[in-house]
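Annex B. Sample input.
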Amino acid sequence: MAVSFAVLISGLPARAGGLTLPPEATQALARMYNGDPDAAIVIAKNLQQSQPDHPLGFVLEAEARWWQTYCSASEIKYGMVEAWKRGKRPEDQSYLASADKVIELAQAQIAKTETAETHLYSGVGYALKARLLALRNENHAVAHAGVSARTEFLRALALDPDMADATAGLGLYNYYVDSLSSIVKMLRFFMGIPGGNKQEGIRQMTVGMERGVLLSVDIRFYLAANLRRYDQKYEQAITIAEPLVAKYPSNPIFLLLLGNLNVELSRSDKAAEYFHVVLNLPNPESTCTDCASCSNCATCSSRAREIANSFLASAR
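Annex B, continued. Sample output.
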């Protein structure tokens, strides 16, 4: 966004090479990543009310809803805890509505003043859509959203080569497209989807997790999870994931990932430490305020405990 727009909306100066988030956004991210996405949604909605023309509040709401969805959809397959494929759910509507709003607001601002930040937000909106559509196994829709996100991230970097969050988003695209199965790669060929490069994607994701503002935690998590799932580089994945638990010790998703990685390396005692922490986390259901239309909030902690107990039982 233009400097004048950023100052008007956030009251904070814009800076080259990245984003400057208002304090409430930083607070929402901290609550979300420390295992309380419901509290982050409350903050996000307040931000939407105070800044209705800015996409950030809707980014934060969709991001928080995603972690609820990821947690409730997680299960163990092939020895890995992951949010595996599942069908459409009623709660998907709120998530997709937030993602669409991000794109709408960002594109409206681009029409007035084209900047790296507005293209970044537009790209994030498409990326938000792509990951839920991927969870639902809607491959054609995922491809279209992914390509749109890539276009927006490339344009952001053309305007500001130091936009680390855009570099992170582009890296995620490059990694995934180069890691797809042969069947999906054939689909990519016939649909004319741009190719990717896994090693370049890892480099770009590393830039994003080290220098990004909005996406640094997401990218760190997905880089660690992907190195486990696609490359079996468990030691490297642990090194990348450990700072997540160090900073956000109450997030069951991060704890389960580290426990899972230690299982892969046959470090049963170390893995058990992480799983026991999950079992001893406080139960958040009593503070949930946004569960009237979905069960994600109510099921996340029970799902995490179920997974932790399954890992512990298999190690006996």
